[in-house]
Amino acid sequence: MSLFSLAARVYWEDTDGGGIVYYANYLRFLERARTEWLRSLGHSQQELAQTPGILFAVAGLSIEYRRPARLDDELTITCEPRADRATVMHFAQRIYRAAADEPVDDRRRELLVEAEVRVVCVAARTLKPKRLPDFLVAALALERS
Amino acid sequence: MSLFSLAARVYWEDTDGGGIVYYANYLRFLERARTEWLRSLGHSQQELAQTPGILFAVAGLSIEYRRPARLDDELTITCEPRADRATVMHFAQRIYRAAADEPVDDRRRELLVEAEVRVVCVAARTLKPKRLPDFLVAALALERS
Amino acid sequence: MSLFSLAARVYWEDTDGGGIVYYANYLRFLERARTEWLRSLGHSQQELAQTPGILFAVAGLSIEYRRPARLDDELTITCEPRADRATVMHFAQRIYRAAADEPVDDRRRELLVEAEVRVVCVAARTLKPKRLPDFLVAALALERS
Amino acid sequence: MSLFSLAARVYWEDTDGGGIVYYANYLRFLERARTEWLRSLGHSQQELAQTPGILFAVAGLSIEYRRPARLDDELTITCEPRADRATVMHFAQRIYRAAADEPVDDRRRELLVEAEVRVVCVAARTLKPKRLPDFLVAALALERS
């Protein structure tokens, strides 16, 4: 299984008066990585909202803040998805302080954040749970093998 | 004409690593005041998006940052609307450092931000310009008199 | 023990393209309630950062999203603090869709979000854990009794 | 003169309930481009805040919203700086809907936003205006020639 990862930079918009990234804003970085993982499978959320008419809603998450990220830091956000039930995906995600071109398994990278995110596939119109589309079921099966 | 004003508090989410409110976030305070002015006329934007099917889109703005707001500051955001053309409203807006219960014309209040915001009424479906609804035309006429 | 609660309104800034509050932004509402609880004890974070030189850093949290909040919703955010160790507070927090003047134990209120937030008291300079100040220890002891 | 440009993607965090990018959030994209232009000159803001102890504060701006950006859009943000006075820079900035690998002068690109941003160099401690550092004066002179 290859771990999906995304690089991002910390800008002023992400920080707060404590000089570090505001605790809610790490969730934005986590979401970007999940979105780019989906795009890496060939699908955008705009398109999936049209056909087959689905959205992904975060149902719950837990997050541990290990070390603060600061202005100008280069972050690597990782994303390990797995299917849970027919309508639910789990993502184990981490944020490291690390340049994008460093190997993702470099042990010198500093772990900043660890999170578990539960995402439900819902019908775009009704927001009711709906089965994951086949391309996701296939991708998540591959992840597992 | 009575000047509309809204009180708001500065929280961590509004600040950046410089210890002051992030420059984009003043636009959130300005929008809250415009929304509450509209609500003071008896209308919410959710409801207007349904009937008669209109949204308000900011078409342009200019803003001057006089002094920075800081964590825990109490702000007063003012809002002076006027009609421009059949489809456009202008808002002269100011943000003061001031407790909500201080008189709005208190000269000791510190002026932090001044802005001019141009808002277009558009059809919710097509996003094309649409005439302002009658209740707004009436309210804006009152403002002028 | 009296449950602390804060009222807040959902504005455009809080929503995302799905028409509901963006999942990270609920954390902003939670933080506002914790900040106002602290202020209700007579202390602001600006002041505590000066004397005795402490900040409160979120060390971890879990959150369950039950139902989405929407534009114009009135929210009530509750906050039940308890001391954990000498340097750590836990907050059980909930967000309801509910007008500010409805009784906080009204069973008709819709529960939108439940969260557990772990907050560490740290030295403002070094960001290293520091004992909770006496006024907080006293307040948290009262909560328990 | 070479026009500086930065590519960025629109994520859920940037959109609002109208399905388009929230009007304040374009200012975040504009700031990212100014920050990366500075970095392209070999300097980060963290470092400049230490030595020679300066920050850049936005003193005012005007912005015109031509067309809305939407979820998943690829944006190109441009940045044309010029010195104004000894302590002030002006940035003419534009946001296009355009993939990063399209030529920056492609006429088919859709112009979404135009802005003029006035930035003051201030002392990090006092927030009082301070002369632009030599490397910036030199870079801005080059831009002009």
List the helices and strands and how they pair.
4 copies of one chain form a homotetramer.
Chain A: E1 4-9, H1 26-40, H2 45-50, E2 54-65, E3 74-83, E4 88-97, E5 110-123, H3 134-144
Antiparallel strand pairs in A: 1-3, 2-5, 3-4, 4-5
Structural class of chain A: alpha+beta
Give a quick account of the main beta sheet of chain A: strands, pairing sense, barrel closure: 5 strands, antiparallel
Kindly report how far apart the N and C termini of chain A lie. 7 Å
Number of domains of chain A: 1
Largest interface (C-beta under 8 Å) = A-C, 19 and 19 residues
CATH superfamily of chain A: Hotdog Thioesterase
Q: Tell me what portion of residues of chain A adopts beta-strand conformation.
A: 35-45%
From the alpha carbons, calculate the radius of gyration of chain A and give it in angstroms.
Answer: 16 Å
CATH structural fold name of chain A: Thiol Ester Dehydrase, Chain A
Helix content of chain A: 10-25%
Mean pLDDT of chain A: 91
Assembly annotation: homotetramer
* Rough outline of chain A: globular
Question: Would you report the number of β strands of chain A?
Answer: 5
Strand order of the largest sheet of chain A: 1-3-4-5-2
Order of helices and strands of chain A: EHHEEEEH
Low-confidence stretches of chain A: none
Total helix count of chain A? 3
CATH architecture descriptor text of chain A = Roll
